[in-house]
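Record now logged underneath.
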Amino acid sequence: MRLTNISDESKGQLDAGFEAERRLMADDQRDVHACRNLWRSVLERTVDDMHFLRNHVGTRQLKKHEEERLRRIRENPPAEFVQGAWFEQICDYLQVSPERLRRAITEQEASAA
């Protein structure tokens, strides 16, 4: 866009405004990217917790940190989370089909068992 008939001071203010808007848009994209990474990590942790639960349930010789993790997983079962509304909202935010992801998780768990 070429601007004519404006003073150097006005042009400087306009350029500063464009630069501020560009930075805000970049910050918004950074926030969106960070949010997407956070929710992706939540889903990855859910799958990891399901594996941990399957592999460690019934194990008698657990280390203290493994016992604590197992207790936390049992308090908030990942299988219940996968069937819940939060899971669907996260999938919607990530633009991933909740049904397809559930099916993939179920198939992965079945093949690992």
About this structure: Residues 35-112 form one domain. The two ends are 62 Å apart (CA to CA). The chain has five helices and no strands.
